[in-house]
Amino acid sequence: HAYIVANNSNKITVVNRYSFEKLGTITEGLDNPRYFVSVNNTGYVTNWGDPFDETDDYVAIINLQNFTVEGTISVVFGPEDIVVNNNTIYVAHQGAFSQNNIVTAIDANTNTVLETITVGDVPNSLVLDPQGNLWVLSEGNPSYTDNETAGSLTKINTSSNLVVDTLEFQSTDHPGLLCSDGIDLYYQLNGAVYKMSYSDSSLPSGPRFGGVSFYTMAVANGKLYGTDAKDFASQGSLTVYDLGTNSVIKTVTTGIIPGG
């Protein structure tokens, strides 16, 4: 199955992942839902609640047999991206309409918070490497906050949930869209795509290629897929790049705001 989160509609549509035949909807128990992950046949969805209220944020627990919310886990402000490593769920707290700097670890066996881990300001994306380390890309506080901070890339050992390394960007650099092909990490910064190895001890000195404005990004099988939402009111596009040559393979037109 695929689970399509409609944030403003407070709804998740369940479909056959191959045919997109609609199988059901989840409409009760959601309040500004953001991202979904499944663990042991149970779904978990981050919820902002009121994006200006720092006390009502939670992770909804979804029964995947009858498509209902069967419980919630209260978490700190602004839960966003979510990944799972074995039976531990990790949530990046970007901060909703404000800013935060926390990753929460949740035990999927007991549905309780294990601990919170401090990372860089505004963590926007999470990636697990083949050794089970969690990489957290933080964009830093934007300039309009009057407290601008640099982006950072944090490595967390998921056996201990301790931060083992942090790489700092320049003070006005705000990276995003961290993703991986299982071998290397990729991210977007200042209209360009950067690549680095899991074993690198420093950030890359230069980009792989530039001239991009991705809304979302993914890599697989030697290709990079980047969407462009353009003006957010007309049709967007998807461009596919060959990562061996950094050249465009194909560009196709999509619907409005291609979100993933």
In DSSP terms (H or I, runs of 4 or more residues), the helix count works out at 0
The separation of the N and C termini measures 16 Å
The chain-level structural class is: mainly beta
Q: What is the 3D form? A: globular
**Helix and strand element order:** EEEEEEEEEEEEEEEEEEEEEEE
The count of β-strands is: 23
Q: pLDDT average, as an integer?
A: 96
Q: How would you write the strand order of the largest sheet?
A: 4-5-6-7
Radius of gyration: 18 Å
Poorly predicted runs are none
Strand portion, in percent?
over 45%
Residue share in helix: under 10%
Largest sheet: 4 strands, antiparallel
Describe the structure.
With 260 residues, the chain is an all-beta fold. The protein has strands spanning 2-6, 11-15, 22-26, 33-39, 42-47, 58-63, 68-74, 79-85, 88-93, 102-107, 112-118, 123-128, 134-138, 152-157, 162-168, 176-180, 184-189, 192-197, 209-210, 216-220, 223-228, 235-242, 247-256. The strands form six sheets. A four-stranded antiparallel beta sheet has the order 4-5-6-7, with no helix packed on it. It has a four-stranded antiparallel beta sheet with strand order 8-9-10-11, with no helix packed on it. Strands 12-13-14-15 form a four-stranded antiparallel beta sheet, with no helix packed on it. A hairpin with a 6-residue loop joins strand 2 (11-15) and strand 3. The two termini are 16 Å apart. The mean pLDDT is 96.
